[in-house]
Amino acid sequence: MPLGLRVIIRDDKHHQMFERSKSQMTPFFEDLFLYLGGLVKDINNKIIISGHSDASLFVDGSSRNWDISGDRAQQARKVMTMGGMPSSQVLQVNAFSSNRPINKENKKASENRRVELLILTKDAQDKFNQLFDDSNINNPIKKRLVRQRLTNPCYVLKRIMSNQPDTKRSYKRWNLNLKDNYEPESVQLGGVGVQLLRRCFIDISLCHGVAKDISVGGVGLLVPAEKTIPNKVIVVFDKTNRLAGKVMYRRAVSEKLMFLGVEWISKNERLRSDIVNRLQLQAQLKKPKRRA
Q: Does position 118 have pLDDT exceeding 50, yes or no?
């Protein structure tokens, strides 16, 4: 899927975009970015602005290419805004330092010093927004909170997937609470941990869940009720095995849990059979033990 229109603005033999080792734009390119600001204001597409530097060191021998590439991207944004581009049209401003050279043979070449505009398609914009949406478990801010255990609706489910035993109980259990408030045992039967993905130009993680029953035709899953699960998902069992499926029905188990009936749409019947046989054995070996 195309991400959008990539526009590369860089030095030529007659004009230099920025003064050497500075973020001050020269008059010729300032006029160019003012014109671009007036040009893009008439479209509704979001824009990502990226700054790139060459690999040259500064006069004092230091390397501040991260700073200079970011400052130049910000300067381009400011000039385009002065030219009429709404500030809300910019989705992201990036600094790449010298990590994305055009001339890979000569990383100090002038063509590597540039500013790029990526004018996103509507689909690419939606996928980008999904990546940073608060409901997405791959949201960078939310992932940090998860690591700190400040908020994590799937904490115990993840612990099962990483094979870390629950020291508070004599048998493995799962729940969706941070606190030690366990759901009734009637909804805490054994299962196998899985991950659900949404298929995009990059696979986006939806949530973790528990496979309750599985067959060559499909699987029954328990997932957090707060998650929005699309009709088509990818069920990941481990690093190498995954199957695509279609959600045929949904049933609320409790305020925090939803049961999904998923029918496989993957055509590889041998892979489905192998996964079913392995998970059935895994479930038997991990069968929960009741406390006396």
A: yes
